[in-house]
Structures are given as structure tokens and as C-alpha cells.
């Protein structure tokens, strides 16, 4: 089966010929968090900016903005637009993420690449399973990444609210997958 849309989405430097394992850690006191590789090397920082904390960015380990997120208010599906770098210009729009309707209980979000302006069929979707979720190509059963929640009583007691492990399949843009984690975090933070 052809994996349309799988591969480079953000930038080729974020695609590896091998599977990429990442971990996310978020402290109790903030909605900012880090994404590291399995050796603890910082890959990304997800941070809120602006006077009212209305702008979210995903920066690389050196602090350079990779993606910027803009939540569209007053929409039926809770849309988030994701832009290249620190831009919020329409020409730099990479994809739009929509929260799935409540009646689609296992599907959390649908992703529409910028060229998919009709949004009749999603390019990617995230579905939940026991203690995690998986990222699928469109409406297929092709999984490109898995996210597992690793919260334990001990991690909560010692100040770590959320800890997840992520496995991204070979040749899949792991910055794209990291951006979906940021959006899922926003959705869950608003609902808790």
C-alpha cells in the first residue's frame, strides 16, 4: 500500500532511515515540555509565548523555531493551524488539525495537509488505544507512529505530570509527529 503523505512534512532533516524513539516530559507547574531522544538529548521544546500565552511554538534543541501553532477560536471542531518556523503567514501553512467529533470516540484528531483544501478526507489521523494512541496515514490502517503514556504514581509524586514514549517509523518526519503531541497536549490540558 502506498503511504501517501508519509515522509517529509516539516523538513528532510527530521526524517531518519531508522525508527526514531522520543520521550516527552512535562512538569506539573507548566504547560511547556521537552521532547528528547532515548539518550536524553533535547530534540524539541514546546513553549507558550505572548502576553496572554496565545502562541505556541515547537523549537529545536538549539532554540530555533521549527513550527508555530495558531488555534482557531469559534470553530466547530477546534482547529489548529501549523506553520513553518516562526511564521503565521498563510504561505507558510503546512497543515491544519481538527479535533474529531465526539461520536468518533476512538479518533482524536484529523490532519489535513495544506494542499488538501477541500478537507473531505484526512491525510493523517490519530486514534487512541489503551494507554496511548497511534498516528495513521489517512483512512488506512498504516501506522507511522505510536505514542504510549507512561504516567506512574511515582512520576506524579516527583513532579512530572506527563511522560510519554514515542516511536516514529523510519522515513517519517518526527517533527511532524512531535507537533501532533503538542496539539494533543493542548486538547487534554483544556479538558482537564
From TrEMBL:
InterPro entries: LOR (IPR007612), LOR_sf (IPR038595), Tubby-like_C (IPR025659). Pfam families: LOR. It comes from the Eukaryota. Belongs to the LOR family. This is Tubby C-terminal domain-containing protein.
